[in-house]
Amino acid sequence: MNIEAPIGVFDSGVGGLTVAREIMQQIPNERIVYFGDTARVPYGSKSKETIIKYSKQIIRFLQNEGVKAIVIACNTASAFALEEMRREFDIPIIGVINSGARAASYTTKNGKVGIIGTEGTINSGMYNEVLKGINPKLEVVTKACPLFVPLVEEGFVDDPITTEVVKRYLEELKDKDIDTLILGCTHYPLLRETIAKVMGPGVQLVNPAYETALELKNLLLNKNLANKKETEERSKMYKFYVSDAAKKFERFADSILPFEIPKTKQISVDE
Amino acid sequence: MNIEAPIGVFDSGVGGLTVAREIMQQIPNERIVYFGDTARVPYGSKSKETIIKYSKQIIRFLQNEGVKAIVIACNTASAFALEEMRREFDIPIIGVINSGARAASYTTKNGKVGIIGTEGTINSGMYNEVLKGINPKLEVVTKACPLFVPLVEEGFVDDPITTEVVKRYLEELKDKDIDTLILGCTHYPLLRETIAKVMGPGVQLVNPAYETALELKNLLLNKNLANKKETEERSKMYKFYVSDAAKKFERFADSILPFEIPKTKQISVDE
């Protein structure tokens, strides 16, 4: 395997860019091929079978792009498809769920962990399963927050309406005495300040995007896959693909990444 | 053509059920085959090319079900694909946009019409085009309201948060002196009361779902396609298909239709 080969990162849309951003910061030598499935977003309300089908199509595409490892930057796809994809493909694959769960298990002091995410992630129960696998004594409380993604995508980030929605969703978590809360959807770090304010200083927020970049870094070192070559120009290191609406993707990417992204290409992976 | 054949109705998801509901009420003799593209919802943020591709796949499926006419119950698909589908397929096809625009042109007294809808519908400019085609003197004001659909699907229908979002979106329309407002997305009739309260008694709301059922009724009579046979049992007259998450679809359908729907089948149209 060529150590200068890129990392494949995929998500249902723009949210996975928070994961790509962490990888760019923590392991700046690595090239990235990003795929956002904007034609089929959101994944959160779709069934397991559908998510597995989509994930296979995308990984096949990323393999054709010559990637050396895959990051599933979408919580729903990590929840539904990670195990199956590891069986199916002969390439290292990591997902945001495991990284987030591990960090939460280190962070909690009272053993009570909250998880927020889309309906798909929460209903899958996968975060609970992974957390219990790490430490069966952990108490886990979950809450689906389906409006957070549309609010972020509408740009209502620092907004009284969003604060009201955050309060409404998190109200029931506040009575549960948790000291750690996993931001179990890639869009949620963008609401981090509002969530922190509503939950109060007694609750630590865990950002799986950050933890995933850390896990990827270790994986590449352990498997002798880390790129030692000096950093090139950003625009040559990163490639962005989407299945629809490339212009809209570029606008969102430019608003959250610290450099102007190269032209995003629209492609189809379902044929 | 068999006059007992069903009407094909399709939408990106559950929203088109407000159109199916109007057809059931106004022409109760007609059978219906409904397809909700829940695997690929929402259409509102997708490109024209993608929506045309999806619409073709769905109409081919509905033709295999033996339908005698097609209703595009999705505003985005009506905006992007109606003309193309009429050229492509040899079957009567109507869309919610034309019906809604015609009703608005009859309703307005001061010639100033507002349109609200998803990004796709609003950016397509199709409502404006059709309205101007009917009466070039009409003044048209538009506003995309991307949060309305997720709020309705989350069940926040009669809710102070939704009232705040409605106020935020409609604020700029209130200064424009419109006397007629087209509810240009199939979910919006479910927010009708809140929208009416915010806009005040001087603004008439136009529900394209209602107008589309009326147009379909006339079309079937004019083409001698109306079913004269007595109404059968509801559960035998209506068939529901989705591309994903059939259970969730059934729950939503049962909440807005006045009878329990038959089992919804999950099928794939993209292969």
Based on the model shown, name its key terms.
4-stranded parallel sheet, alpha/beta, 6-stranded parallel sheet, homodimer, 271 residues, 47% helix
Could you characterize what this model shows?
The structure is a homodimer of 271-residue chains. The first copy, chain A, is 47% helix and 16% strand. Chain A is of the alpha/beta class and 271 residues long. In chain A, the strands form 2 sheets. Chain A has a 6-stranded parallel β-sheet, with helices on both faces. The model of chain A has no long low-confidence stretch (mean pLDDT 93). The two termini of chain A are 28 Å apart. At the A-B interface, helix 7 and helix 8 of A face helix 7 and helix 8 of B.
Structural class of chain A: alpha/beta
Order of helices and strands of chain A: EHEHEHEHEHHEHHEHEHHEHE
Number of helices of chain A: 12
The largest sheet of chain A, given as strand count, sense and whether it forms a barrel, is: 6 strands, parallel
Low-confidence stretches of chain A: none
Q: Calculate the terminal CA-CA distance of chain A, rounded to whole Å.
A: 28 Å
Strand content of chain A: 15-25%
Largest interface: A-B, 24 and 24 residues
